[in-house]
Amino acid sequence: MLGFGDKSTELYRMINPIEHSRTKESCNKYKVEPYVIPADIYGANNLAGRGGWTWYTGSGSWYYKAGIENILGIKIQNGYLKIEPCISKYWKEYQIRYQFKESIYNIIIKNPNGKNCWEDGISEVLLNGNKVDNFIKLDGSRNIYQIDVVL
Predict the structure, then answer these.
(1) Contact, 83 vs 75, CB < 8 A?
(2) What is the DSSP letter of 20?
């Protein structure tokens, strides 16, 4: 939300439970499922690094929501799509396939200039090859749409 794309992707990766399960030693320390977001990770004494409160209501969904909306930048409001990424400057491109009712939106975000955030400027948004504003009306008409965004 502050526009720090490098920091946001670093922190998001750090929270990812699989990062605590890369080695046998880290698995033995973490002691909880590597596919569930814990509510906390202990930091004191012999419990340091151990996960706790897995399957905690809401933590996984908030993690997912933060990644989709605040990092990848896919925001849906009142039937409109806006793309406002906040990513690492080292991400050159990523793709998202979004389904709204019966329609498919194939979205490609390109970052040739190493920007961190949409606030640094979106060069263009193309919908099926036509330049449009970054405020696309969604429909469920069984169509397939191609959206290209260049930061």
Answers:
(1) yes
(2) G
